[in-house]
Task: inverse folding
């Protein structure tokens, strides 16, 4: 993966966080939206620049990017490290008990979110709200 200007990413993340309104978090499950908000490109899907990744935008803390760590070179990791918590997509799940412990209202894109992720969130005590992805 390669990264593009940091300042654009910061502005995009701020816009997405502002769009959360009364919600605490947004799980981004659409690879197009992940690529746009973090300005990253991947080679995970043949003939497209999409990274297979999830992102979790939190209203009150640093966003988290879940991607295959083996595909992030040092330059990309360094550029993203100050912007987001980087987690290995294969070893981590964006939904954790810690995330859902507080009465968290999280937004999920009803068109792209895998049912397993919403079920994990509900099982951990979180409140799911489905709607359209504010990024799209």
Result:
């Amino acid at each position: 993966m390669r990264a593009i200007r940091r300042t654009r990413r910061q502005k995009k993340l701020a816009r997405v966080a502002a769009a959360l309104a009364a919600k605490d978090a947004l799980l981004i499950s659409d690879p197009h939206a992940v690529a746009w908000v973090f300005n990253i490109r991947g080679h995970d899907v043949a003939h497209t620049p999409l990274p297979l990744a999830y992102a979790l935008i939190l209203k009150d803390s640093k966003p988290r990017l879940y991607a295959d760590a083996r595909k992030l070179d040092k330059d990309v990791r360094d550029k993203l490290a100050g912007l987001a918590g980087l987690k290995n997509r294969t070893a981590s799940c964006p939904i954790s008990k810690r995330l859902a412990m507080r009465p968290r209202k999280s937004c999920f894109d009803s068109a792209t979110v895998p049912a397993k992720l919403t079920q994990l969130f509900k099982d951990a005590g979180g409140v799911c709200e489905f709607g359209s992805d504010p990024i799209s």
In short: The mean pLDDT is 79. The radius of gyration is 14 Å. The CA atoms of residues 28 and 110 lie 11 Å apart. Helices lie at 6-19, 31-38, 74-81, 97-101, 115-123.
